[in-house]
Amino acid sequence: MPLSPIDPSVLRVDDEGITLLGGWSPTSRQRHFPRSPVCPYTGADDVEPIDLPRGGTVWLHTSVKLPPPGYGGPVPYQFGVVELDGEPLLRIIARLAGEGVAPGTRVELIGEELPGPDGEPVVTWSFQP
Amino acid sequence: MSDVKISGVGLHPFGRFEGVTGTDMGVVAVRAALAEAGIGIRQVQAAFCGTAYGGVAAGHRVVGALAGTGIPIYDVEAGCASGGAALQLGAASIASGQHDRVLVFGIEKMPKGVIRSSFFAPWQEAAGLSPAPAYFALRAQRLLLETDLTPEHLAQVVVKNRRHGVANPDAMFQKAVTVEEVLAARMICEPLTLFMLCSPNEGAAAVVLERDGDGITLAGISLRSHLPGSVLGEDSPLCGIDDTTITPPTTLAAEEAYAQAGLGPSDVDVVECQDTDAGREVLAWAELGLCPVGEQARILEDGSALVGGTLPINPSGGLLSKGEPLGASALGQVVEIVRQLRGTAGARQVEGATVGLAHVIGRGANACVTVLVR
């Protein structure tokens, strides 16, 4: 029995691995994540569900050394903004796996097991070179 | 807003005060402001209290500790801009003709440790996506990538503000630091060391607003939030990091406040701006129109933002010296600017200042800009 995604509206876990669930508005021609009922750029209500690309490039990067409130996983961890593949530009906040993930580094989505909000293990995501 | 005057200001020092409640601190600040205005609590017609962690009816507890009044009391939350939002509502109640004299104050007793914000959903916290200092750090990283600013420049912001803080008896830290000490301090989130981040803490500040009179003029005040755009909407953690395609809320608020005052950035003599972290302060300089993007490095190198320079910024020591009690910090800046414009700021006085600006920005990307004129 595979572990559950940390939030089923954000992440799907199946035989193909994990997939980030985004939104696409045909009228505003913008992708967004996490999926919102309306396009966060324009308020358009024609948002369609899309699966987001698993590859991307690191835009910004730092690290977290003290565990933030509500987080039960290991520290330190790498943290940054990833520009996902495809058009138009979509930047998302993400944990990064490994050391020294400099801006410009190519990364791939991976699943990661962490304690969920109630302490039970769940699947969340990270990007690794 | 030219008919709104500040007739009294008061402060409870910012720091950590064991056994002193937020209400206690509010009473100290309010009493001081009322005394300066030469009135009692029964002479104000409404009260506006900024606080983020004060709980239900926090302002009522402060006013009630002075007297039962029956006046309307508004408790206002807008993240780091809570005190600014309270001031904006108080000023509007006078400008609209509803009231002739109101009390505005801010109080906070922040929980210790990393700030927990109900802004994030439980799944975002559990996924490790809610570390507030890391968001500041990512914005600072972008600054280092896109400009000629270096970590040494970020350290110089801290050195400037801590040097100012030495002359402020109400500041939490009254000790100067060197660039080397700032860079050698514990790394929190690259490029921000411990000294480059302000400390959440405790304190209170209060002002009395009146129609007309001979106080300092509240010439302009505006509270704005984020426009939609590449920030991906208000619920996105990216808010504020990626603002490449929109006008930042600080600029929106500044333009409105300048227009109300009939003044521009070149008229400003003294500034108190949000320095949650060292990067945030230099971003604010450009967003407020005080310098072009890319000029910050030169300003830090030539010392023109120091007291005694051409445009002193954060003469109080800023949040990097005072700490940040969310509900009180914006009004703490206003208290400082009022004292600067009155010429009563002591050893940190900016000589001849007639126009001052106060600026806060925080969660929700609420930004508030206030322009004060002697």
Overview in brief:
Chain A is mainly β and 129 residues long.
Provide key terms for this protein.
heterodimer; A: 129 residues; mainly beta; five-stranded antiparallel β-sheet; four-stranded antiparallel β-sheet; B: 374 residues; alpha/beta; Peroxisomal Thiolase, Chain A, domain 1; nine-stranded mixed β-sheet; two-stranded antiparallel sheet; 19% strand; globular
Q: Average pLDDT across residues of chain B?
A: 93
Q: What is the topology, as strand order, of the major beta sheet of chain A?
A: 7-6-5-8-9
Residue stretches of chain A low in confidence (pLDDT < 50, at least 5 long) are none
Number of strands of chain B: 11
Reading the helices and strands of chain A in chain order gives EEEEEEEEE
* Strands in their spatial order, largest beta sheet of chain B: 3-2-4-7-1-8-11-10-9
Provide an overview of this structure.
The complex is a heterodimer of chains A (129) and B (374). Chain A starts with 10 loop residues before the first strand and ends with a strand. Chain A has 129 residues and is mainly β. Chain A is built from no helices and 9 strands. Chain A has one domain (11-128). Chain B is built from 12 helices and 11 strands. Chain B has helices at residues 22-37, 58-66, 82-95, 122-126, 132-146, 151-165, 179-184, 249-261, 278-287, 296-302, 318-322, 326-342, and strands at 4-15, 47-50, 73-76, 101-109, 187-189, 192-193, 202-211, 216-224, 270-272, 355-361, 367-373. The longest helix of chain B is centred in the last third of the chain and has 17 residues, at 326-342. Chain B has one domain (4-111, 198-373): Peroxisomal Thiolase, Chain A, domain 1, CATH 3.40.47.10. In chain B, the strands form 2 sheets. Chain B has a 9-stranded mixed beta sheet with strand order 3-2-4-7-1-8-11-10-9, with helices on both faces. Chain B has 374 residues and is an alpha/beta fold. The A-B interface holds A 6-7, 10, 32-33, 36, 40-43, 60-66, 68-73, 77, 79-81, 89, 91-95, 103, 114-117, 122, 124-125 and B 113-116, 120-123, 125-134, 137-138, 141-142, 145, 187-191, 228-230, 232-238, 241-242.
